[in-house]
Write a structure and sequence with these properties.
Helices cover 47% and strands 12% of the residues. With 501 residues, it is an alpha/beta fold. The chain has two domains: 140 residues, DNAb Helicase, Chain A (Orthogonal Bundle); 314 residues, Rossmann fold (3-Layer(aba) Sandwich), CATH 3.40.50.300. It is elongated.
């Protein structure tokens, strides 16, 4: 039975302020029963401490009683009506409903300890519903009172982010898990790798030698792909995105969930190129018609028909491109969450990291702090969505000043935060690019040597694994077709010796 709180009605006229008045969802009887259970048997607190907090109580006095009881229990002391009495002797709000005697009445209405978690879940759920009402009210107020420089899209994105955070409340940070649960998940991952073609535990990137080194793109990993301009970062990223999307296969389970068999839905954030430019690149790769000829219209009838066929095949590809420039890390996270909620998500690609913006506060502290916020945010998003995030990054110019221009971790711009937060760091190096810039005078012995070396390295790209938390470092060679901006596995007879770093 509910203990009456003996407080005045909202409106003494009896109309409760208006005929439209609705009280926020709450259950005082559940709050009283749970608090009574805790005061009778402190073990009841252990059953709800992992998810319930004082702010989840509707009645402010109940929130303070719960907090005071928790303070005593954490200190190893007994929380009971007697021990709590001294905390509330001068509490005006408690005096309005009976004073310290109210604590004894709570204990008298205690729920059985076996029901305490169920009461706690009910209180928690009602608190989420109240927050949802508050969020809706905020959206209405923001739409009415928006500043002139605030667009409707900004309000929508802020509302989506707040709604997603509310939806995910309690899903993450659930405290300790038994080792047996983690062990089961590890075995499931190994079983999936055993059953999957190629023996990969993560997503295949479509390039065999990289897959063998990394075991595929692992869920929750932040993977940095770095290189100097014109090395082919965007081309490699689009190749990987296409391969993952093309291999997407899922199976609908009886319970309504979707079991991913291979590949995945891909979100590609292109802060540098337009969606049309990216689409042209992918069409060029798959039709094997150079993108330059496609853009200039220098194609024959047969090639045009081939373009049409390829475009029809790509029409249903689960690859989603967001080419918005100047995105903040918060906006990117909100859009990735939205896509996962609506379509599912297997991989996020960001091209490129230095074009993202952080919060205004971090930006005012300097670019290094802003990049640190961005990399921390990307890593947190990868863990939250449980997908790999492939983020492209520029390298500093100091690479050009060395004789050996192969990139190193120290070459990353703002390298401290990027190197620290990344799980994997990949570098692209094409010796052909630098070789072409140092052409000797034709007819000399040096020119013949230069020409001979050029023939050996033409079309060869080196992918250097500079860091990998759960695997070896080293490098592999790939074939790069500059006209098609396409990376492929290198034929074994042309394979150069592997370099270790």
């Amino acid at each position: 039975m509910e203990i009456a709180l003996n407080r005045p009605a909202p409106d003494a006229s009896g109309s409760e302020e208006s005929s439209d008045y609705r009280s926020p969802p709450h259950n005082l009887e559940a709050e009283q029963s749970l608090l009574g259970a805790i005061l009778v048997n402190n073990e009841a607190w252990d059953r709800v401490a992992g998810f319930l907090a004082p702010e989840h109580f509707f009645e402010a006095v109940h929130a303070r009683i719960f907090e005071a009881a928790a303070t005593l229990i954490r200190a190893g002391k007994l929380a009971s009506p007697v021990t709590l009495k001294t905390y509330f002797e001068r509490d005006q709000a408690l005096n309005e409903i009976g004073g310290p005697v109210y604590l004894a009445r709570l204990a008298a209405s205690a729920a059985a300890i076996i029901n305490s978690e169920e009461y706690g879940r009910l209180i928690y759920d009602l608190a989420l519903r109240r927050r949802l009402i508050g969020l809706g009210t905020d959206v209405v107020n923001d739409a009415f009172d928006a500043l002139p420089e605030t667009g409707a899209r900004d309000i929508i994105e802020n509302a989506e982010q707040a709604l997603y955070e509310l939806a995910e409340t309690g899903k993450y940070g659930q405290g300790f898990r038994p080792f047996g649960v983690a062990l089961t998940q590890a075995i499931d991952m190994a079983a999936a790798a055993y059953q999957r073609d190629g023996g990969l535990s993560g997503l295949s990137c479509g390039l065999k030698d990289i897959d063998e080194k990394m075991g595929g793109l692992q869920p929750s990993d932040l993977i940095i792909l770095a290189g100097r301009p014109a090395m082919g970062k965007s081309a490699l990223a689009s190749n990987i995105a296409y391969h993952v999307a093309r291999n997407y296969r899922a199976e609908h389970q009886p319970d309504g969930s979707v079991r991913l068999l291979d590949g995945g839905v891909v979100a590609l954030f292109s802060l540098e190129m337009s969606a049309e430019q990216l689409a042209t690149r992918i069409i060029a790769e798959q039709s094997e018609i150079p993108s330059e000829r496609i853009r200039r219209g220098k194609i024959g009838e047969e090639e045009f028909h081939r373009l049409v066929e390829v475009s029809q095949e790509l029409q249903s590809l689960p690859l989603y491109i967001d080419a918005t420039g100047g995105l903040t890390i918060a906006q990117l996270a909100a859009r990735a969450r939205r896509l996962k909620r609506q379509r599912g998500l297997g991989l996020v690609v960001v091209d490129y990291l230095q074009l993202l913006a952080g919060s205004m506060r971090r930006a005012s502290e300097g670019r290094v702090q802003e990049v640190s916020e961005i990399t921390v945010g990307l890593k947190a998003l990868a863990k939250e969505l449980n997908v790999p995030i492939l983020a492209l990054s520029q390298l500093s110019r100091q690479v050009e000043n060395r004789e050996d221009k192969r990139p190193q971790l120290a070459d990353l711009r703002e390298s401290g935060s990027i190197e620290q937060d990344a799980d994997v760091v990949l570098f692209i190096y094409r010796e052909e690019y630098y070789h072409q810039r140092h052409e000797p005078r034709p007819g000399t012995a040096e020119y013949l040597e230069w020409q001979e070396l050029g023939e050996k390295i033409t079309g060869i790209a080196e992918i250097i694994i500079g860091k990998q938390r759960h695997g070896p470092t080293g490098s592999v060679q790939l074939h790069f077709d500059a006209a098609l901006t396409k990376f492929q596995n290198l034929d074994r007879e042309d394979y150069l010796p592997e370099r270790h770093v």
